[in-house]
């Protein structure tokens, strides 16, 4: 089969590799339909240990972590309900030496890296979704367990931001979304999101008042840099800023030492695959089951920018859209 593989110099190239035919125990074989290229697919190619614990390549060095396809065979121990179903996959939910990455015609992954999609949705619309949905889900589990009762989302107009909006609402957890444009604010409001603030001049005054009122002491930060520098002084007491994304690039965060003292402020990272929800197999399976019941919410879908064939991977990796829509590889 055709597959996009990682070279020793960490470039990508199309190769022919053996098609898997007999699934390993606990694994499913998936005829792939589509794979969105997420930020992680680019970051981890360049920096395998960007989230601390480097992901190993599979035996054929096939790349790709997010996608959708149809389960064509299931190994021993896989629940019967998976066979024949369309699934959304996020490969990094389970590390297994038997895995075969998703940018190929037939992948092999542990069944607990797949979410069964309802028959009435178009699978392709979820080809980049599971990583973002699971990140938001695991984050909410973690902050709730840590005693937080509300959240501020810095990348309000991102896929992770949308997923968090839908899940926070279903938990009735107060959430404030920061966005860069009026258009992004209107789009979220149209979807029923209540607290959306545009990060224009003076927005921190509004944020300070609202966050004190709602008790939003957890910050889900996908941006970093200047935005975190600006919001830190107005966060409520006992806030924790969880850094999970780097949309703001390499700009430094600057926070006065006194603020840490005055507000008992904490800054730490959040990584979905280091979360309890993902690391504990039973919790992961429970979370996937719960998400199955709500996944047909349009806030969880992937914004598709442009579709590419596997042999156009270079163009697909270089693709950038103005509105955050993603390149998608079709199999
Ligand atoms: N740690 C984890 O477990 C984990 C998991 C998933 C993703 N991530 C990371 O999380 C980040 C977000 O991923 P995603 O897939 O959700 O993003 P995405 O859907 O690609 O988000 C793109 C949108 O974010 C907004 N944005 C871009 N740069 C921004 C900036 N500097 N400030 C504010 N907003 C900005 C833009 O909207 P506007 O132009 O309208 O502002 C853009 O349309 C990435 O860095 C990704 O690697 C981490």
TrEMBL record:
<keyword id="KW-0521">NADP</keyword>
<keyword id="KW-0812">Transmembrane</keyword>
<dbReference type="InterPro" id="IPR011032">
    <property type="entry name" value="GroES-like_sf"/>
</dbReference>
<keyword id="KW-0560">Oxidoreductase</keyword>
<keyword id="KW-1133">Transmembrane helix</keyword>
<dbReference type="GO" id="GO:0070402">
    <property type="term" value="F:NADPH binding"/>
</dbReference>
<keyword id="KW-0472">Membrane</keyword>
<dbReference type="GO" id="GO:0016651">
    <property type="term" value="F:oxidoreductase activity, acting on NAD(P)H"/>
</dbReference>
<feature type="transmembrane region" description="Helical">
    <location>
        <begin position="241"/>
        <end position="262"/>
    </location>
</feature>
<protein>
    <submittedName>
        <fullName>NADPH:quinone reductase</fullName>
    </submittedName>
</protein>
<dbReference type="InterPro" id="IPR036291">
    <property type="entry name" value="NAD(P)-bd_dom_sf"/>
</dbReference>
């Amino acid at each position: 089969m055709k597959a996009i593989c990682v070279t020793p110099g960490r470039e990508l190239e199309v190769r022919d590799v053996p098609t898997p035919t007999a699934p390993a125990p606990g694994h499913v074989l998936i005829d792939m339909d589509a794979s969105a290229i997420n930020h992680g697919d680019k970051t981890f190619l360049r920096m395998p240990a960007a989230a601390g614990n480097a992901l190993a390549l599979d035996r054929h060095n096939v790349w790709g972590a997010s996608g959708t396809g149809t389960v064509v065979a299931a190994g021993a121990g896989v629940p019967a309900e998976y066979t024949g179903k369309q699934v959304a996959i996020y490969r990094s939910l389970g590390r297994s030496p038997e895995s075969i990455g998703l940018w190929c015609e037939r992948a092999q992954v542990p069944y607990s890296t797949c979410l069964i999609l309802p028959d009435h949705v178009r699978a392709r619309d979820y080809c980049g979704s599971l990583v973002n949905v699971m990140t938001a889900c695991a984050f909410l589990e973690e902050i709730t367990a840590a005693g937080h009762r509300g959240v501020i989302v810095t990348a309000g107009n991102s896929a992770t931001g949308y997923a968090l909006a839908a899940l926070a609402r279903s938990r009735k957890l107060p959430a404030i979304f920061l966005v860069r444009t009026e258009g992004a604010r209107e789009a979220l409001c149209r979807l029923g999101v209540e607290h959306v603030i545009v990060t224009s001049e003076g927005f921190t005054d509004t944020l300070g008042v609202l966050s004190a009122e709602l008790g939003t002491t957890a910050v889900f930060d996908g941006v970093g840099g200047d935005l975190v520098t600006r919001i830190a002084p107005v966060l409520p007491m006992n806030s924790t800023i969880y850094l999970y994304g780097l949309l703001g690039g390499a700009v430094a965060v600057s926070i006065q030492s006194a603020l840490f003292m005055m507000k008992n402020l904490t800054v730490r990272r959040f990584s979905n695959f280091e979360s309890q929800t993902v690391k504990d197999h039973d919790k992961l399976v429970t979370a996937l089951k719960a998400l199955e019941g709500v996944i047909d919410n349009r806030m969880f879908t992937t914004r598709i920018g442009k579709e590419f064939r596997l042999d156009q991977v270079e163009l697909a990796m270089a693709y950038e859209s103005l509105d955050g829509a993603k390149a998608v590889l079709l199999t």
